[in-house]
Structure prediction request, 499 residues.
Amino acid sequence: MNNKSGLILRHTPGVRANHWFVAIVFILATLSGLAFFHPAFFFLSSLFGGGPWAKVLHPFIGVILLAAFFMLASKEWQYNRVTDADRQWQKQALDIMLMRPVKMPDIGRYNLGQKYLFRTLLLMIAVLFLTGIVIWQPYFAPRFSIGLVRLAVVAHGVAGFVTITAIIVHIYAAYWTRGAIRGMTRGTVTAAWAKHHYPGWYKEMSRGSK
Amino acid sequence: MVQQSLNIERRSATTTPSPGVRHSVEVAKLIDISKCIGCKACQAACMEWNDIRDEVGTCKGVYDNPPDLSAGSWTVMRFSEVEAENGKLEWLIRKDGCMHCADPGCLKACPAPGAIIQHTNGIVDFQQENCTGCGYCITGCPFNIPRLSPKDHKAYKCTLCSDRIGAGLEPACAKTCPTGAIMFGSKKEMIIHAEGRIADLKERGYQNAGLYNPEGVGGTHVMYVLQHADKPELYSGLVKDPQISPLVVFWKGIAKPLMSYGLGVAVLTGIMHYVTVGPNETEEDETEK
Prediction:
């Protein structure tokens, strides 16, 4: 899909819109959820109009996040099989992170780190949703046994931590890999960027355009 | 409700010390189940003093009425007919309500600063104006006491009449009890009084009579004199060895502080990586190679 300017389409407008919608909702869910995570973050509830409003909004934000994320996930699902190139990448991951000169294996559309991120988010958002239902006052929590609610509050906190940590890694990796963010904002990446980071995908794209 | 003049031992979701330089005597309510006749005057006095009116329910065919605690019923009498010893029928009536734990699980679980406070006199009190309605206090309580109001989505429970005690009065239920089954005073005095009652009960053949002041929650500021202290579960399922759930202890005491640091470390790691390794840039003429 090379065009004359040497740019390659990485993400379609639909995927971009979906991704940034998920990002906004995720940030809202994180800020309102952190308010209840530890007293050190309680001040964040002010962003939502105080403690009661943060408590009221957080679960609804969560449901919107689930819907938007799974819509995005259904589009990206197909690109997340682990390949031999990915296994090779894993062995070189530390070298890549420390920017030591390595020969990049034939990575497809996404590298293994991104695939792990995708899988982590998929699992964790499902866990957050299910445990969130169990602890959702006043609508659902009274229907569950107190033992299950206690388990769910712990699991919700841990899953929240894993998810937020994964997103911190995701944001940093996108910032660190110069040229990646434009793939998600403007949709296109340079051919050189594609060849450098995703040689397998680059070959596939250039074959398609010829 | 609020009694700002009382001194504060602990506040929920607060990591700095509470205003607690003044010391007050630990108080306690002693409920002598062997003296209770189940008249429910305490229930009526509680709703009278606190201006709470529960919805009128229906008769379930038993004396328990209302059948359970609610945001509008902070104390209920629980009736149980048991054969505790040698087929002898006994009618055990327990006045259920907040136990005012020295180590309150509700306060530990609460994420809203100052929504639950523990006074230096031992009273655990909900401050509804700070309550977010999340229901975490319910997960923290080993006695299944707090209730969310369907009307305002705030948690409510017995205040031990903190407003009356602040003004030098005894709790409404203790004031009204016609048999003297509910006593109020300093915790020390109440324990001494209970010892006399227990000795008396033992003389009358209740070999296992004893005081219910469970150590698992650091002792309570509502204590029971039980005829069968070896089997508290006979009294409508009074918990034998109440403890804050280990899940709640792990969640609030270990996991959340640790994970909060973890998030900070993740951000710091990213910044340190960037300033030491630098950005991962692509040479634009790379395709030509």
Summary: The mean pLDDT of chain B is 93.
